[in-house]
Amino acid sequence: MSDSLDLTDARKRYHFAFAPEDHDELPFYSALVTTFEDDEVALSLLASVRVEQRNPMLILAALQLAGLRGHPVLGPLYEHVRHGRLDDPRGAAERVLEVLHHTPDVVAKELWRSTQTNEPGRSAVLQAVIRDLAGDRSSINVVEVGTSAGINLCFDQFPVRPRDDGNPLTLVCDDLTPVDRSRPLPHVHQRVGVDPYPLDLGNDDDRLWLKACLWPEQRRRHDRFDAVVAARPTWPRATMLRGTAKERLGEALSLCDDGALTIVVNTWVAFYLSTDERLEYFSELARRCRDDNVAWVSIESSRIHIPGVDVDEAAHHRAASQVVVTGPDSPSRRWGWCHAHGRWLERTTES
Ligand SMILES: C[S@@+](CC[C@H](N)C(=O)[O-])C[C@H]1O[C@@H](n2cnc3c(N)ncnc32)[C@H](O)[C@@H]1O
């Protein structure tokens, strides 16, 4: 199986799967990737994935999916991890490896999937930026490119607080610079999502996959996901378009009420676009922001360069995500920085 596969590359991918602080916070996942780094079956599985999805998270999610579906060993093991009841992460990682050796197909048959983690915490950042961009407008449209299950199309449905208040839907966000969260958010006319693989929270398989993509040691994210699933039927409707940014952005914009500002959003999507598609997407949005009633919010890794916005090397070190806004009628500028899951937000003075 491994003859033509690049196992050295796969080893590096497992090795760098987590930042040092994640290793401290996630003892089970840390033990798992460390074990996989030295295991030929685990290396071969990762090396066999199509290059744009060759991400250790896909292997980890496939294993948790088997657990969620009731695998006799992985089911109880992951349940223990999700409830913080695991006292031997190394031993647990060895048991997972035994399953992988015995039945690699548990993972192999899921490798057609994509990691599509839909992180509601980003809505805390979206609320702050969208309120700012909307200014005095009482209504807007929102188009989300790379929407996954469209959870952040309902960015306005989440309470945001500086501290946990016991409500699983509450997004806890530390505003490191002042953010006025008391001003009402604009009414959203149209909510349109674009994704090559849109997921449906009402579909069992899609829902389990989204849950499998969450790290099992982060209990709060699991509780919040369950609360989102329960609340979603009561939230406003969204239109989901299946296709890539290149294929469906124009149509998504045409579905919006052109009397209102349309805000296009992409959060943690740019890495999934090919270089050509990314450049085309960025220049199309810059044009739309110049010529149409459109604004654009991009929240991506600081390694994603948006034309006109300087690179800040310091951001790489604190693993901050960059918030860039464009238009209406103004060029792209850095609005601020945030945690990748929206746990903190910092507005830069230049905006
Ligand atoms: C990491 S997920 C992020 C989902 C969501 N934006 C969030 O922040 O929670 C990336 C999403 O981008 C989508 N995607 C991948 N290639 C794409 C493309 N060419 N055009 C639009 N979306 C794409 C994936 O299917 C996936 O749902």
Helix residue percentage: 40-55%
The major pleated sheet works out as: 9 strands, mixed
Shape: globular
CATH class of the largest domain: Alpha Beta
The stretches of 5 or more residues where confidence is low (pLDDT under 50) are none
* Ligands and ions found: S-adenosylmethionine
* Tally of strands: 11
CATH topology (fold) name of the largest domain? Rossmann fold
The helix/strand order is HHHHHHHHHEEEEEHHEHEHEHEEE
CATH architecture of the largest domain: 3-Layer(aba) Sandwich
Number of domains: 2
Model description:
The chain has 14 helices and 11 strands. It has 351 residues and is α/β, with parallel strands linked by helices. The protein has 2 domains: 7-108, no CATH class; 122-347, Rossmann fold (3-Layer(aba) Sandwich), CATH 3.40.50. The strands form 2 sheets. Strands 4-11-10-9-8-7-1-5-6 form a 9-stranded mixed β-sheet, with helices on both faces. The protein has a two-stranded parallel ribbon with strand order 2-3. Helix 1 (7-15) packs across helix 4 (40-47) and helix 5 (56-68) crosses helix 10.
What's a quick, concise take on this entry?
The protein is an alpha/beta fold and 351 residues long. It has 14 helices and eleven strands.
SSE topology:
Blueprint: H1 7-15, H2 20-25, H3 27-37, H4 40-47, H5 56-68, H6 74-82, H7 89-102, H8 105-108, H9 122-134, E1 139-145, E2 160-161, E3 171-172, E4 174-175, E5 187-195, H10 204-212, H11 219-231, E6 239-242, H12 245-254, E7 261-267, H13 275-291, E8 294-301, H14 313-317, E9 321-326, E10 333-338, E11 344-347
Parallel strand pairs: 1-5, 1-7, 2-3, 4-11, 5-6, 7-8
Antiparallel strand pairs: 8-9, 9-10, 10-11
The protein binds S-adenosylmethionine.
Residues 114, 116-119, 122, 145-146, 148, 152, 194-197, 244-245, 267-269, 272-273, 277 line the site of S-adenosylmethionine.
